[in-house]
Amino acid sequence: MELKLYNVAPRMPGELKFLETLTNNIWWCWHPLAIELFTRINPQLWKEHEGCAKSFLRHIPQERLEELAKDDDFIHKLNTVEAEFCKTMSGKPGNFSARKVAYFSLEFGIHESIRIFSGGLGVLAGDHLKAASDLGLPLVAVGLLYRQGYFRQVLDRSGWQVEHYPIARIQDLPLVRARDAEGKDITISIRLIDRDLFAAVWILWVGNVPLVLLDTELPQNPPDMREITWRLYGGDKRMRLHQELLLGIGGVKALLALGCEPEVCHMNEGHAGFLSLARISHLVQDKGLDPNVALEIVWRSNVFTTHTPVPAGNEVFSIDLLRPYLIPFAEAAKMDVNRVIQWGIPVGERGNNDVKEMSMTVFGLRLAANYSNGVSRLHGEVAREMWKDLWPQRSIKEIPIQHITNGVHVQSWVASRMALLFDRYLPPRWAMNPDYELLAKDLEALPDDELWTTHELCRQHLIREVRKFNQNNLRYLNPAAGHKNSLMPDVLTIGFARRFATYKRGNLLLRDEQRLLRLLRDTGRPIQFLFAGKAHPADEAGKKLIQQLIQFSQRENVQDKFIFLENYDIAMARNLVQGVDVWLNTPRRPQEASGTSGMKAAVNGVINCSILDGWWAEAYDGENGWAITGNDYYTTDEDRDNYESQQLFDLLENEIIPCFYERNQNDLPVRWIRRMKRSILTGIGTFSSIRMVQDYQKMFYSKAETAYQALIADDFAAARRLVVNKEMLVRHFNGLISISEPTVDNDLSRVHVGDTFDVSVRVDLGDMPPEIVEVDAYYGTVDAHNQIIKSFSVPMEVRQDLGNGSFIFGCKVKCQKSGRFGLTARVKPRGEEWDNSVPGFNCWPR
Question: Is the confidence at residue 93, as pLDDT, over 60?
């Protein structure tokens, strides 16, 4: 006989009914008054439930609820929170059809109680949703509901990482089953070769943004298919492919079942790339479009964000593995599966029968060529260099990968004590990307003593939490760390917390152990370090880094001031970025795409000390922290690591430690506080997720929406016209066009700044009229290999019709500055709709 499961909840007094509403929306986690409400109900129970509001509320004794219903002060605060919540939710569409932008990600880090994230990529996605909610954007998000999520890290006696996978109690999460117009639970299915995979559709509300989550733990699925949404980044390549097909194909199906037909789809990394195929299938099957017309609509309204310059972070799948999975989806889109696979093959390898893998990054870039980006200014440059072969015959400057630098959700990461201080002294709505100059002025006026006292309280809170954590978790491993004399509350505290991968160099300080020990044993100017982070379960080298740090502290008996914290998560991250004095970051440049943990530290007045990589390469101004400068002459990792570790020690000994312990007559570190204010200005003024999402809205979402609406207007007339034009252009560019070497009327070895010379070329267009092409003189500065690195172009005009489709084009080029230049000519389609094309159209999905 089947066991019937049910929950018994306390009977909520009418005065407290809003508490039930509040626990069913994770909005509370970034609103201090709401958190204060839960804490006031029962502080100890709230800690025990680790921020799981729904579970917490179910365990409140009935007598306590009745008592609170008669507490006028509590009811007043509850009403205040309810008014703010209703303000956020006002205007929320009653159905999904008004949500124009869909954001797809394989992970979301919203709160530590919802374990569907692993690290920075997921936390960024969570901050993206929170900012979208604060801004009132009509956005919907799509992800997977992992029953076990990412692993819990346990360290054995040798300091080796062991992974545990506790099962989430989804009845404790703020989830509701998605229902259709008839009130029936929505379940979607996708075809996996010869079997159907079923997924339940859940909704988790992040403020006014719905996060749609797919769950394969259903009786319709056999045991092996139920496991697809068990673990994030678990299993083999086949399991990862199943997850990504479910996210992309299943995610679009779930949105359509909810009545949402997004105009713009944002792929947060290549994991979500298969959504393009699902969008094409929808337009073909449900709108009756030709697949080529559907393709034009989809690639011109997609957004793609790449997050890593590290090759291992760019997903690839074996074509032999992938092909049988793609066949049913390609058939639904009325496309040849080989054509679909070619979208994920780099240009130089297309048509090569020996190609074994398809790149999801190439797939994403090609299917979002108008709106693609890296996540910092430097990463944008690196990404353009990495993927330039997708757009042959272009200079780096013209590669259509832009940058939108990441940001952090300030309200989620700023300490409550610091937020109260900011409320008193900073501009109203200081967390919502305030005016930079006004923010700078108010920070300058913020009293030094109040800022320092607030920060010291944050540090003291961190030390208390670490001591308690270690007493409960690590005493067998690190017996000194939990004692009262470990981690002193008034000592310079440096934090390093992030994923432990080799390129992040978590052990850089161990390059000179004796120099490190001198710092750790200096009683006159003491220093202490806190480390935290997980290595990927399959990353043995990353695990070794963790073990090296732990064994160093044990071997040298510095466990009371050089501590590794077990099981890094969002809660621990909050305490660290709010309480340390210095945030350390030591990646090998340029392998850190962004590095948002440093931004979270900055908004709290914590000062960054970092390699000039990722966000810090554009954020560092000489006054808001310290830069570990590298040396490009070192070509081996060993030499670079040694050099940069010495740079770090020099900064610690000569600048950071003296600056911290230098005090005025009021015992204030005035120079340090000046850097703290500059750090806050950097974090809040430039690197918030509000600014980031506003950038996405301005640069991508609004433009892609406009493009989509134009393409579907008048029975898809514009999209149909593009297909006709493309076919004509491809036919001519691939066979009929030739262009001569440019001819000039001047001796280019004798030109000077201010000189002008004439350039002309002969172009054979066949039967293509000259008015549909643009012929340019293309020139620019060159590098040592005579490759154009900074390009300019001057459009040419028809000077002579030679007959039989041949023309002379020409223009004048003026020498604007001195230097070594290269000159050629090119021909391309005329018009903005072809801006991201080249002769041969190799960059296009076709």
Answer: no
Token couple for 735: 């066979």
DSSP helix, strand, coil percent of the chain (3-state; round to 5): 45, 20, 35
| Residue 693 vs residues 244, 404, 592: alpha-carbon distances, Å | 24, 9, 21
Cβ-based neighbour number of residue 519 at 10 Å: 20
Residue 102: partners with Cβ closer than 8 Å, 6 or more residues away:
139, 140, 141, 142, 251, 255, 260, 262, 264, 265, 266
DSSP conformation letters of 140-165: EEEEE--SSBSPEEEE-TTS-EEEE-
- Taking the C-alpha atoms of residue 131 and residue 690, their distance in angstroms, rounded to an integer, is 5
How high does pLDDT run on average in the chain? 93
Helix (H) or strand (E) holding 628: strand 625-628
C-alpha distances in Å from residue 354, one per residue of 393, 444, 720:
24, 62, 35
Rounded Cα distance, 333 and 328, in Å: 9
What confidence score (pLDDT) does residue 842 get? 43
Confidence of residue 455 (pLDDT cuts 50, 70, 90): very high
| Closest by Cα among 705, 687, 686 to 697 | 705
Question: Per-residue pLDDT for 230 more than 50?
Answer: yes
Q: Is 512 left (phi over 0), alpha (psi -120 to 50) or beta?
A: beta
* Residues 560-593 pLDDT 10s: 999 999 999 999 999 999 999 999 999 999 999 9
471: exposed, middle or buried (Cβ count in 10 Å: 0-12, 13-18, 19+): middle
Paired sense of beta strands 264-268 and 302-305, if any: parallel
Q: In 3D, which of 409, 415, 411 has the Cα closest to residue 454? A: 415
Comparing 200-204, 390-394, 552-556, 601-605, the range with the smallest average pLDDT is 390-394
Q: Which of 682, 579, 572, 685 is nearest to 119 (CA)?
A: 572
Integer Cα distance of 200 and 221 in angstroms = 11
Query: Using one digit for the tens of pLDDT, what is the confidence trace for 409-446?
Result: 999 999 999 999 999 999 999 999 999 999 999 999 99
Residue 584: strand pairing partners: 609
Burial of 2 (0-12, 13-18, 19+ CB in 10 A): exposed
Q: Where are the beta strands (DSSP E) in 145-298?
A: 152-155, 161-164, 175-177, 187-192, 195-206, 209-215, 264-268
Q: Are residues 299 and 366 in contact, defined by beta-carbon separation less than 8 angstroms?
A: yes
This prediction has a pTM of 0.95
659 confidence band (pLDDT: 50, 70, 90): very high
Q: What angle do CA 619, 532, 236 make, to 5 degrees?
A: 100
Measured between alpha carbons, how far is 140 from 122 in angstroms, rounded to an integer?
Answer: 16
Distances (CA, A) of 432 to 139, 524, 667, 692: 18, 42, 34, 11
| Complete DSSP assignment for 771-839 | GGEEEEEEEEEE-TTS-EEEEEEEE-EEEEEEETTEEEEEEEEE--S-S-EEEEEEEEE-SGGGTT--T
| pLDDT, tens digit (0-9, with 9 covering 90-100), for 466-486 | 998 888 776 445 565 555 668
**Token pair in block for residue 259:** 């009545």
